[in-house]
Structures are given as structure tokens and as C-alpha cells.
Amino acid sequence: MPAFDPVRDAVLNSPIDSPSFSPIIPRRATDLSMLLNDNGPPAHTHQQHRHSTIHSLLQDDTLAAAEPIRRSTMDIKHISPQSSRAYPQRGSPRPSSASTSDSQPPPRSSTSPAVVPKSTLPYKPNRRITKADSVLVPLSSEEMDMYRNYRGQGVARLTGKRKRALSEEPVEEVRPAKRHTGDVAAVVQHYNSRPDVGVVQRMESPIIGLKAFNNWVKSVLITRFAHPALEKSSFTRSNGGQGFGRGKVLDMGCGKGGDISKWTKARVGEVLFCDIAAVSIEQAHGRWKSNRGHRFDASFAALDCYAEPLIKGFPPAKLSTPVDVVSMQFCMHYAFEKIQKVRCMLDNVSKYLRPGGVFIGTIPNAELLLEQLDHIPPDEEDKSFGNSVYKITFDNRSGNDRPIYGHKYSFFLEDAVENVPEYVVHWDNFVQLASEYGLVPIYKEEFHQVFQEHQEHPEFKPLLVKMKVVDAQGESAMDEDQWEAANIYIAFAFEKR
């Protein structure tokens, strides 16, 4: 039997008719082109033709004299004397084309070389780690469990240095604080820098009477308009053994969570808290955690509701169900720097408020502010007014051509606000814009009017004493300056239709 020769086998199995090898080698009958385009030779002649072809091929002097390729010739370290002539050494002159054409290849032997015997060395590696019969053995279920929970020396060393065990509570994603500029940055810095004092220290504030009265007004507003909207809500949520909470609230500009106790009293099901000051949001979150009353579900987001949609602060699942009440207390006037901010604020209010829901809030009284500004003499450089408790300073008088948006002033309130930039809210313009978002006003009163209307109410009169607005004899905790500062504001309520 002839020795292994891949070149000869390639010629024998070639589907191409090539005169360079043999003029009598036809295409094989198994070639795809023959199968598709030719019927091929008859079955009884095909085997004879194949034998004659192979016989003639083996008798050909060129193929018969061809030297078979051995494995040793494929080794880069083994170079035969004949092959060394094909690769000249470095520095030798390059042969010319004439010398190359005249040179004749050496004659080849007509006899076939002997077959190279197979190696008799046994397969016995000396550095094998696993057993020879363990490579294809599948892992058992016990081994799979072992490797799945395997903890190496490095992991054990690191975990052994921990002073406390890992918490099983899910880690909340903390969004990086957004950098603000201009007046917005001043507002954020002010409220972030104010500490969240305890109840005892809060009662020692020099304007505790004013703060208590403002809280009472917010309670009246929430009880009168938010409670009925929450009772009509179709949204309920279980509160872990404390029954069910009804209704959903969006508290925009929640600050440090001063109204958490009011929503607890309303037995609400869920509240979404958002504020531009991240530190205030953290303090509100802590106040909610320490709340001992009705435990409603709560979500917190540090978000500029006047420049960003709510979807950037809350997951879509939290906003999938509309809210019944939107509350904005002592903060909406910051949006009136630009009309774009006002529209963004109103869009956040209306987009997630159900039809029939209410939008409540408190804002400075623009008519009162501009009236006080007009009382300042024209030649007076200082465009400010106030008393020992508060001070308002306008940047300019602006005359009769006062801007609707961006009419700025600085506001100071003792133990509360430190010269923070604010903007005038023109009520008629606000109502007109709100109507474009389906919001219709149903209530608007100055704070002193709210007091006159509800001071004898069977529910709100005892609340005056409970919230320490007045004592048991009816004496107010506010002096005249605090009363004047309180009446800068008005309370409002809108309904979405």
C-alpha cells in the first residue's frame, strides 16, 4: 500500500478537470455540479471508470515519484537539504530571473518511501493533576452545591475583618445631588443648612406663636378640602395591622416633613414627598420613620418640581395611580421666576391629579406686598418694609410696568428665613394659567379671614388650644408684629375638572 500522501489524495478527490495533473481525470460523480447539472455515467460503468482513473493516476510518473509529506518535514527545526536551498541565508545575493528559469529541480526517486512506524511510547504525562478517568465524569449534585456556595480563603479573610454583619435590608439607590445656580442655589443652600430641631427646642422659638398659627391654618385647609377628596378616593392601602389608609397625596415642597402629622391624622394611604433641598428630604424621611401614629406608605425624592417632571424622582409604579390631593405650602412663589417654571409646576400638579381631586396651598399676598411697596417714598433708596419679625426688600420699584414673572424680593423671617429670594405671585395671572391645566379655584382667603371664619368652629376652636395658638383663656401667643407677618399670606384651593 502506498504511503500517506495528502497531495495525491487531494488530486484524486479534486472535482476540477485540470490538465496539469492528468488529462484523463474527469469530475467525480459525487461533485455537486455533476449531481445538479449532469446525469453522470451509468451505474454499471461508474465503478470501472473509477478504477481505470485511479490506476492511470498511480501509473503516472509525476505522482508516483512524488515524495510523501512526513510530520518531520513540518517541524520548523527540521530542514531537509533540498528545502534549505529554497531559502537563502542572510546576506546572500538575490538570484536573478534568468538563473531561476534555467535551474532544474533535482530528480525524484521513483520508489515510494517506507511507512513511518507509529511511536511505541506510552501516553504517561508526569504533571497531570486530575485522574485520567475523571475528565468526562459529570459533577454530582453535592459537588455543584459545594462550588456554588464556595468561599475561598480571600473571601473568608475579608469577611472575617468586618466589625458587623451585612444588612439584609435592600440598599436604596442614592441619586447624586444636583448642582444649582443663581437664586435656586441660594434657596437650596438656605433650607439645607437649617437644622431639624426637636420638639422642645422648637417650642423655644421666638416666633412660636406665628409658627403655631401657620400650622393651624394648614390644618384647616387640609381638613376642609383634602379630607373630603381622600374619602372619595378609590385608592386604599393596608397599613400593617392598623387598618386601611384611603387616598393618595403629593406633597410638593414638603421641606422637613412638617405636615406628616396632618397626613397621619387624615389616615391617608400613601404620600409622595418631594423637595428641592436634599437635606430637608432626608430629615423628612427620618421624621416619617419616627412617626408613632398611623403608618402610611411614603416615598421621598430630592427634586426640583419647577424644572423637572416628577417621573425623574419617583418610579413609574408610584405614579401609575393618580393622587387625590396635591399640597404646596409656603413654597409655590419660588416657581414664579419664569413662566417656564410655573408651567412645569402646574403640569406636575395636574398630570397626576385625578379629576375631582384638589390642589391646596399657601402663598404670599401679592396685593399686600405691592401696596406696601407703593407706600415707600419715591426718593427712598431702601425699597424695604417690615417690623421686628420680618423684612421684605424689593430690588427695584418697577413703577407701573411691573413684570408678571421674575418680580423679585428678598424675604427675612426671624428664626425661619434668612433673606431668601422670592417672587411675586399675581393671583389673576395664576388663575388664568391654572385653568389651562384643568384647575379651577374654589377657595381663596387671607390668613386673618381664615381665622375669623373658623375660630368658633366646633372642630377648629379646640385645635387652636391644642396647637398652642391660644391658651385656655383664649389669649394669643402672637404679638402684633407676628400677627402682621402672618397676614402676608393667603390660603387657596383648586379643583381639577
Automatic annotation (TrEMBL):
UniProt keyword RNA-binding, yes or no: yes
Signal sequence coordinates: none
Keywords: Methyltransferase, mRNA capping, mRNA processing, RNA-binding, S-adenosyl-L-methionine, Transferase
InterPro entries: mRNA_G-N7_MeTrfase_dom (IPR004971), RG7MT1 (IPR039753), SAM-dependent_MTases_sf (IPR029063)
Bias (Low complexity): 14-26, 92-103
Domain (MRNA cap 0 methyltransferase): residue spans on this chain: 205-497
Enzyme Commission number(s): 2.1.1.56
GO MF annotations in UniProt: mRNA 5'-cap (guanine-N7-)-methyltransferase activity; RNA binding
Domain of life (superkingdom): Eukaryota
SUPFAM superfamilies documented for this protein: S-adenosyl-L-methionine-dependent methyltransferases
Annotated GO CC locations: nucleus
Region feature (Disordered): 1-55, 71-125
Pfam families per record: mRNA_G-N7_MeTrfase
Keyword check for RNA-binding: yes
Protein name: mRNA cap guanine-N(7) methyltransferase
Organism: Crepidotus variabilis
